[in-house]
Specification:
This protein has 369 residues and is an alpha/beta fold. It has 18 helices and ten strands. It has a seven-stranded mixed beta sheet, with helices on both faces. The chain has a three-stranded antiparallel beta sheet with strand order 1-3-2.
Length: 369
Amino acid sequence: MKGMDIQAVNNEGLQQASALRMALGILNPFLLKCAIRLKIPDIIFGAGPYARLSVHQIAAQLPSEAPDVVALSRVLSYLSTMGILQAIKSDEDALGINAGAAPTMTYGLTNIGKTYFVSQDISPLSLAPFALLHTHPAFVAAWDHIHERVLHGGDNFQNSRADGQDFWCYEASDGEFNNVFNAAMVSLTKVDMGEILATYDGFKEVNTLVDLGGGHGEALSKIVGLYPHINAINFDLPHVIATAPTLPGIKHIAGNVFESVPAGDAIFIKHVLHLWDDEYCSKLLDICYKSLPDKGKVIIAEAVLDRSEDSDPVGSGQLLDIVMLNVSSGGRERTQKEWNGLLQSAGFSLTKIVGRKGSLTKIIEAVKC
């Protein structure tokens, strides 16, 4: 076979493999969910941060008297292809002691596995709760209707539900989902805030900071920890504030951001505006404008959308933009030009956008004119 023919076959094989990965892409989040539910990363970490365990050692710690060891072996093998685990031949196999026998594998955690997919009490950067949210049956059911969203518009999450509830009504009425959602937001906030505080220092000049939609106060807790002089107010819906823990330096206030917000010299808005269309965002920013003094500022933590052909789906905001398409009728990510226009229409002047290239969340700072 000529060189060009071999190259063509190789290219076709790579394309087929890529197409199969796309078609079977749903496997990854659900195998990750399986690992989290079985606490496989925790089991391995419990033996030491660099431990390697056999299938039988892991099986012995599962909450079952008769686990399917063969099934577990297949799951562990796949998790190693995902980069969560590292599959390593046992010491005996590596030394050739078991020559001729099927290799015995041991499994250790990769840096990704031990940082992001162990429990939060092991790693504060764990995204395990975030993974569980996005594989929740309510989320999955909505994805199955995403083509209807394209054809007919409307609220995809609401239209996917027999009871007709939109995302926020469902979140408020279903205690189990509310817990899953809040845990996911806390986990994402811990990851986000480390990045934000490492790249943005605009909180140092703030005396009273109001966090709109601040959940249980996780973001404010990180900010106040670095800037203890700040008088911090966490503002969220009543059912959220009802379960918020007492945190030093933080006052919890319940209310509705579309009615009024507490006064402060700066307002922090993290992953809230992307939930709403321009009309609602303008209304919220108008309320913020009235609550701020002259030269007061809004500090917005959101993605900045970049639709460049070669842009990374995480850093460009496109990944999160599609999530918004699934759960909200008007929610979306915005480009720098769109953020500037939205802020100007509410009486703010965009002063800076801060964030590391490739990071999901950027800081968009604007001052009241």
